[in-house]
Amino acid sequence: MVVGLAAYAVMRVSSRLAHTRARTVYDLFEAVDFVAERLPDALSAKLSYDDVQDILLWRLDHLRLQGSATYGRGDVTAAEAESQEDEVVTSDDDSVDYVLAKATKSGRDIDALDVVVVLDLESQYLKAIGALGPPAEESP
Asked: Model-level pTM?
């Protein structure tokens, strides 16, 4: 009888999980490793892991301020942005500008090409984990 109840419980949970959409979570350390391992040789000689991590953090900060990313359930800034608009659209150019401003302010030797390459590799990471939705349609 106990074996039957256990089998029923396992089958029920398995069935529920099979019909539940998997939750995609951005892991910063995994993203840094993914990006750093794929950097071109010239760029990997220039950028440290800390540089890559900071670029990704600055990008996340920009997305958070735009309302398209959160740092968790308690993220008031993103929640406020989300409540004001149904759909949040961000521009890669805006992210690059934001990251460059942060890099300049921190005194880092990071230029636009460095940022574009790192963010492109981050997009590959996001695709790999299933975190990217379809591109936004342009407004008429």
From this structure: 0.70
